Amino acid sequence: MNQHVSWAEAGAAETRGGDVVRIVDLKRQFGGTAAVDGISLSVRKGEILGIIGRSGAGKSTLIRCLNGLERPDEGQIFVEGREITGLGERDLQPLRRRIGMIFQHFNLLSAKTVEENVALPLKIEGRSKAERLARAAELLDLVGLADKARAYPASLSGGQKQRVGIARALAARPALLLSDEATSALDPETTRSILSLLKDINQRLGLTILLITHEMEVIRTVADRVAVIDAGKIVEEGQVWSVFADPQADVTRSLLAGIRPQLPEAIAARLGKAGREAILRVDVAGEAARRPLLQELATAIPGRFRLVHGGIDHIQGEPVGTLFVGVQTTDGRVAEIIDFLNARDTRVEVLGHVSDDV
Ligand code: ADP
Description:
The protein has 2 domains: 179 residues, Rossmann fold; 90 residues, ACT domain (Alpha-Beta Plaits), CATH 3.30.70.260. 35% of the residues lie in helices and 29% in strands. It has 14 helices and 14 strands. The strands form 3 sheets. The protein has a 6-stranded mixed beta sheet, sandwiched between helices. A 4-stranded antiparallel beta sheet has the order 2-1-4-5, with helices on one face. Helix 4 crosses helix 5, helix 5 packs across helix 6 and helix 6 runs parallel beside helix 7. The longest helix has 18 residues. The radius of gyration is 24 Å and the shape is elongated. Adenosine-5'-diphosphate binds next to strand 2 and helix 2.
């Protein structure tokens, strides 16, 4: 693989520092529906920006504005500093090629071989056959499919098809890879392998990626920054680990509900208003998750407490986690323990009480 890094590195070098895409106050209405309602965002060179939202949030409309298939009513889009809004079809074409796309259903041409699919963007650019085949071989090597050059898409697995999609999207050395729900049709294991390929290409070659998804797990695994959209607006934006640690918007919390730690059902079902043990949910992140919090607590307050459930995850190398702590109420120190934890940059919530052992 390494002998092929050179061209891509050259491409990466020129895209480091600054914004690849800048969107300013973009609006697009359909009848009475504001599909995109004043979105501003930038994709910085070399980063993976995730955009997440539920169905109907406005993701597709945003993508269609970005690749020129949809005209916004208001606002501007800049690709590598050049405004694309208002351009005619002919002027749009070369700018459109600066964005490589991968799709949920791969969109490969079934009558063409893998290498022909990969080389297609170069054929459109009028490159020679020798150049096209050399680049296709280079890219298939990059995505781990060197032995499938002559195969047809029908003989490939979903994951292999998406690897071909990625190779094709990179063929014309785009400034940005736009991933539109690219792992939504894949099983969890294949999803992980595709996301790890994207992360690898991003880190080794500095490729800038804009990733659209409705799955927080995808954001968690691969993105550096996340923008949450709802009803055509960005409702929350930030570093992935900090949004996971302390989500602000209701829609973010609801998108995170499935993957944030929860008290096991059997215990949650037994929670009451009073009992001999209070069950606390303690969210920790960053510095608070690095310090010996439970040891400090045990030293400072001699009440009985225990870890019921939970753990620490690592997102972008930052610890983010939730500890479910059972605190003996008969010691009369629950309020003191909560104050102690709150003073140490954690978020504490009393979920309820249990009387018997859980
Ligand atoms: P998402 O991709 O996040 O599911 P969309 O961009 O497809 O969201 O849709 C955003 C909103 O705009 C939805 O309410 C949708 O019904 C509406 N919408 C999108 N495209 C059209 C269209 N061509 N005509 C009418 N309404 C549309």
